[in-house]
Amino acid sequence: RLRSFDPALLMRILSISCFTMLQYFLSMATWFVFFVAVERLGQRELAIANIVRSIYVVLLIPVNALATTTNSLVSNAIGAGGIQHVMPLINKIARFSFFIMLGLVAVSALFPQFLLSIYTSEAALITESVPSVYVICFAMLIASVANVVFNGISGTGNTQAALILEMGTLVFYALYILWIGMVVKAPVSVCFSIEVVYYSLLLLSSIIYLKKAKWQNKKI
User: Fold this and answer.
1) Which of 14, 52, 82, 148 has its CA 20 to 30 A from that of 115?
2) Beta carbons within 8 Å of 92's beta carbon, 6+ residues apart
3) Is the Cα dihedral 180, 35, 57, 209 positive or negative?
């Protein structure tokens, strides 16, 4: 039982919760922008996008699980005074995540028609969706590392820095998909290339932060 009320601790908890909720909101909002752009291409393209997104979400499950694990383990390492173990820990989990995703992507890329047949029985739609599956498979290889490294930043306790990094990449995400979908009117497989760009930017900015920022001195 808490014996005293700590306003500073309460404000810290509320601050972290607000930053986390804002991150999730922005992530969901960009998917809305994506589907608005794809819908302008036509109902056929929208159907392809919905099917491929379902596969994308399934592939993300192990990535998100390992990313959450990274967050917790980094926090535990810092709390135990093992700051020097943080980077090796992130690197190990990132490699593990990559090899798991490499296996899943290999199966998906070798048998895309079978995978798509789970969601639709229309042969033409399956054929038209295959290029988008290939794009998502490539994006997931980058995502398997990017999400782990990014969640390592959250694990250091600097949720504000994590929010700023993600906001920057998501703003670019929204502008890119509006341009490629509404202005260029590129095929849906090209529209899905935004996932490659997004995770590449997220990974690059996260690596720069962990190498250059003074996160070791962050007080949680």
Assistant:
1) 148
2) none
3) positive
